[in-house]
Write a structure and sequence with these properties.
single chain; alpha/beta; TIM Barrel; 8-stranded parallel beta barrel; two-stranded antiparallel sheet; 16 helices
């Protein structure tokens, strides 16, 4: 290979320059304090990643309301809350000329029942079995509450900019609130926020406008969006493309493509959701990206499935995407981007399927969350990740920590 496209710069529509085409996609760190603040553990983790070579680091879920959490230890950016560590976190994550973007989110009804007795959603529609054991039935948001949430997204973006983060990303994928508004399965409103795709995308469109008003035109604003929900009657690829086109016209700086929800977890590469022809190309949503590229010029970041340098360069060279999103690979090897940038075709990801070897435990323990979170926590303490760590040990530790009954509540 004569040209390693991963090493080339990317200029965003707002004028910001990202030093290379590798982006660390969001992974929920689950490391916030009891009062929803950041801390030195996050500083240590992001300093490690910043020096690992990625041009862009996107944080895990930062919530906009402490009464609406996706996990118990989320960091929250909201009014009347001062986080004295934020500037240090931003300073750590922007070392080595690295971009650090805050991913801001509201879970909607995807807030576990031990955190939310009555979560909110576009419509009062609960999950089917088995997720109804994990999430309580929501109540429908009032229009006033919708506008308040839009303002909260904008405030969180302002906090991000004021404290040294170099951009923000709206989480519009994986079944959280923005995704719920976009899906006709979850949004059955009859007012201006529901019905046609034009109405269902109004929520995310208004969030973008409110954020842009707060941060200005030179500050990167991104979104993570589903290519589809992979559910019958859900958010389709055609609707997704309509949303992408609209947000592109509004001025979005980077659109990260993912897919799936808790109900259909295409983002984890489960065989049921991913075709074999796609698996051979590694990127789960590459075909969708190829179609989107035909209708928008906005930079696209493709996340999910990439394991080898060749497949990453092939995707970039085809023009289908402009950035490669990596997550679990960098959780196992924080130096993985640096190795890729050297152009060694023998470098491959250490990601592999996880199993405790005991089917009943695999059904109870969300290993993809628990095991990788442990890897992040090791790095946050200044240790190295352990790719060969026993999934069984992780499962047992989790059970000992919070008990079998609690784990049954958080299975997904």
């Amino acid at each position: 290979m004569t040209t390693n496209l991963l090493a080339s710069e990317l200029k965003l529509p707002c004028g910001a320059l990202i030093k290379n085409r590798i982006g660390k996609s969001a992974m929920s760190e689950n490391m916030g304090t009891k009062d929803y603040k950041s801390n030195s553990f996050l500083n240590t983790l992001y300093k490690r990643w910043a020096n690992g070579g990625s041009g862009l680091l996107i944080t895990g879920n930062i919530m906009i309301d402490h009464t609406a959490l996706g996990e118990p230890n989320n960091v929250v950016f909201e009014k009347d809350s001062i986080d004295t560590n934020l500037k240090e976190w931003a300073k750590a994550g922007t070392q080595n000329n690295t971009h650090l973007w805050a991913q801001i989110n509201h879970p909607g009804k995807q807030s576990p029942n031990f955190l939310s007795k009555e979560p909110v959603s576009p419509s009062a529609i609960g999950y089917g079995s088995p997720l109804n054991k994990m999430f309580n039935k929501p109540r429908a948001l009032t229009e006033k509450e919708i506008y308040n949430i839009i303002e909260s997204f904008a405030y969180a973006a302002k906090v991000s900019k004021d404290n040294g983060f170099t951009g923000v990303q709206i989480h519009g994928a994986h079944g959280y609130l923005v995704s719920q508004f976009l899906s006709p399965l979850h949004n059955q409103r009859t007012d201006q926020w529901g019905g046609t795709i034009e109405n269902r995308m109004r929520f995310v469109s208004q969030i973008y406008k409110a954020i842009r008003k707060e941060v200005g035109n030179q500050f990167p604003v991104s979104i993570k969006l589903n290519s589809a929900d992979f559910q019958k009657g859900g958010f389709t690829q055609e609707e997704s493309m309509a949303v992408v086109q609209h947000l592109s016209e509004q001025g979005m700086d980077l659109i990260e493509i993912s897919g799936g929800t808790y109900e259909a977890q295409a983002m984890t590469g489960r065989p049921k959701e991913i075709k074999e022809s796609t698996r051979k190309r590694e990127a789960y949503f590459l075909e969708y990206c190829e179609d989107v590229r035909k209708v928008v010029k906005t930079p696209l970041m493709l996340t999910g499935g990439f394991r080898s340098l060749k497949s990453m360069n092939d995707a970039l060279n085809s023009g289908a995407c402009d950035m490669i999103g990596l997550a679990r690979s960098i959780a196992l090897d924080p130096e993985f981007p640096n190795k890729l940038l050297k152009g060694d075709n023998n470098v491959e990801s250490k990601v592999k399927p996880l199993s405790t070897g005991l089917k009943f435990l695999d059904n109870i323990i969300p290993l993809e969350i628990v095991w990788y979170t442990e890897q992040l926590k090791m790095m946050s303490k200044g240790e190295n990740p352990k790719p060969n760590r026993s999934p069984l040990k992780s499962a047992v530790n989790t059970i000992l920590e919070i008990g079998v009954q609690s784990m049954k509540k958080v299975r997904a």
